[in-house]
Write a structure and sequence with these properties.
Elements: E1 2-6, H1 7-35, H2 42-66, H3 72-80, E2 88-91, E3 98-102, E4 105-112, E5 116-121, E6 124-128, H4 132-137, H5 146-164, E7 172-178, E8 183-186, E9 194-196, H6 200-205, H7 215-226, E10 233-237
Parallel strand pairs: 1-2, 4-7, 5-8, 7-9
Antiparallel strand pairs: 1-10, 2-3, 3-4, 5-6
Helix pairs in contact: 1-2
Length: about 240
Amino acid sequence: MQIIRNERRIKISRNVGRIVPWVGIGILAVGWFASLRGPEWLLAIFVSLPIGVGLSMVGGFFAERYAGPLAHHEALAKALKGLDSQHILVNYLLPANHVLVSPGGCTVLLVKTHAGHVSYSEGRWKLRERAKFFRQLSGQEGIGRPDAEAERQGDLLRVWLGERLPGAAVPVQSAIVFVHPRVQVDADESPVPAFYGKKVRSWLRGPGRLRPLPDEEYRQLLEAVQGIRGDDTASSSEDEG
């Protein structure tokens, strides 16, 4: 599998995730120590509290996606490792954050790092997770509607392809990939396929396998993808498994 990614975006976002939370903690500490000087300094804690907590949440938001073992681009590459060289994983360079380009078209992969029990039933997603409040306070988003989010990213990619390949009909499908090692996914009824990361390869080789495009359309698709490369992009390849 080939990997193309926006290295500049990843580097900047990773630094935000690593540095900004400590800035928020520092602001909270300054406000707290200032308030110890007397009642006239109580305003300091009221000012520093929302700023410090806000910065910590923003930093946590970026840290969850770009830093650590569950960084979305890293966890997804690990889950997809073993796909052949005809597959190209594009990170943060297309309208959808993570797109797997194959001879049959494009698959938008929405990455989620929630732990606990994730379920979908009767049009609703539910998450049962220990310390969920504190994880959200540190910047993790709620479970929300990942199916709608995945479909929205798929629609954006279709528009992008339509503008660049007006004569080609490139299939675009979406899937939701949960990558946390302590997640349990029970979402067979989801309108968008959703599963634990290790199952993504078997899905792509089975129900998610796209019928190969005509040679000319596949060539145009590859040219469009290769055309997004720039000075800020990095490329690598994974061994087949």
